[in-house]
Inverse folding.
């Protein structure tokens, strides 16, 4: 097994699904976290200038959350075996990732971080900033609208999809926890903390999150992990 280093900010964010999979698979890795004000130091060494990034044996660096998640799922048996089931698992995970992606953009926008520099040379993400500064309230509203719209579009489908398998009493793919179940836990973590009432319409997804949290490996991880706001 390679020596893994996972690079990400000191937050759960997009990296948490990967940390959770490492925990569920009982795989040791270096959890390299940094603060926003350190980002300039790391950014140029990251493919695509984004994180999360998974480094293997101190050499190759792999970008893209979902590519890394799929790799870990294949390595550690969090993928179902046949092609149709893989596809089901993939689209469920991708649906959750849509929510996570829009939530992350909304969250960082709200907090004045990682805004594109519309006025200057920037055609890439800006350096971290700490305040709301020149926040454009229309964009602020758009980010929130987009995130909420994605939730309203995707969550009813996921609730139905879960119910289709054994009435939604187990995991998405049956009695084994797969990576799409862990995505359900991670993608909804902040959204649920911020607005619990919105999730009362999705009791099966909420029960699934509890099942994931109760998984022997995950429950230990959740107790011992760093507590961060996002
Ligand atoms: N497509 C990438 C997007 C990754 C991404 O946007 N990461 C953010 C943090 S959540 C980032 O690295 N931002 C740095 C910047 O904008 O300068 C993925 O899915 O992993």
């Amino acid at each position: 097994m390679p020596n893994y280093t996972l690079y990400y900010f000191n937050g759960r964010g997009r990296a948490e699904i990967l940390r959770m999979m490492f925990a569920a698979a009982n795989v040791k890795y270096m959890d390299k976290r940094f603060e926003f004000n350190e980002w300039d130091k790391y950014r140029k060494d990251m493919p695509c200038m984004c994180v999360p990034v998974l480094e293997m044996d101190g050499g190759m660096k792999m970008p893209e959350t979902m590519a890394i998640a799929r790799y870990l799922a294949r390595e550690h048996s969090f993928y179902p075996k046949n092609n149709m089931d893989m596809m089901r698992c993939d689209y469920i995970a991708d649906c959750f990732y849509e929510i996570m992606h829009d939530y992350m953009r909304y969250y960082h926008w709200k907090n004045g971080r990682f805004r594109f520099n519309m006025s200057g040379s920037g055609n890439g993400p800006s350096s971290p900033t700490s305040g709301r500064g020149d926040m454009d309230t229309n964009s602020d509203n758009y980010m929130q609208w987009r995130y909420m719209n994605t939730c309203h579009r995707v969550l009813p489908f996921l609730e139905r999809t879960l119910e289709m398998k054994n009435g939604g009493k187990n995991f998405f793919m049956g009695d084994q926890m797969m990576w799409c179940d862990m995505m359900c836990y991670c993608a909804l973590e902040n959204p649920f903390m911020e607005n619990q009432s919105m999730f009362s319409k999705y009791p099966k997804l909420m029960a699934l999150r509890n099942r994931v949290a109760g998984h022997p490996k995950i429950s230990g991880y959740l107790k011992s992990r760093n507590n961060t706001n996002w």
The two ends are 30 Å apart (CA to CA).
